[in-house]
Amino acid sequence: MSEPWRRLPALSLKQIQYFVTLAQLRHFTDTASRLAISQPALSSALRQVETVLGGKLVNRTASAVTLTELGTAILPHAQRLLNVAHATFDDMQRVMLAGGDGTLRIGLVPSVSNLLFPAVPRLLAQHFPRLRVEFHDQTNDSLLLQLENGQIDFGIGALDSSVPDRLEIYPLQEDPFVAVMRRDDPLADPHHLPWRQLANRDIAVFSKGNSSRLVSALAESHRLNLTARYQVDFLETLYGLVRSQLAVAILPQLYTTHLNDEELTVIQLQQPLLSRTVALMRSAKQNHSPLIENCFQLLLHDFQLRGK
Fold it and tell me: Is 235 a residue whose pLDDT tops 90?
């Protein structure tokens, strides 16, 4: 944690907010209107940010606003600063108005929910009864972005090549890929199914997250003829395609934890084995309060005990 008396740059949070909003809207008039300020005030604030940071952040023409190379590099840091500031002010207001110890924001991909509920809320309530806990479910890509931007304190997601090195990673368990198919499917007899037997079958995968990327990479590296005919957003759509005999679904096993359907069965995929690593993650750059740090260490210890 940095020293509180260390001199800060001559910039306000509002000036940073003006730059971030302009970078998102890419229009001076729209930005000034959204922020309820005049265009001269917006221009003055932007010049102050550029002066303090030592370079031009935007290029302005009659029809559009674009970010310079420096502006593009600065933007994620400015967004993270605003997100942390908003969360901190919300916590301070909540403490002042309603008491308590603030808010813990945990992100997760939906498939890992059974790792958290009901054990994690009970554990946190036992040790930190005055703490407000929020759970934010999203795709793995969104989870990583929100961790970097400081919108959540830590999260549980899956590792792949898209995970930035600016995150601290604590692997929890391996989650193998499986096939979900009808019980009357000719391939549903064995407990384990080689990937090559899915050649010439229509396959359904998730359109978002890293599952489809991992399956595609496996098919390419092992020269497997897999046809991902259907790419969907929701689990029930995936199962519906299987029930309708339109496809075989491929997905990580954790998604099937609560599958209770007499028509469907889960088959382990092998030759080769493919799995994703589920991990607890947080930003390596964000300074957490002692309370949030204690929560993180408590949950990490609990997950490690459960994994033994």
Answer: yes
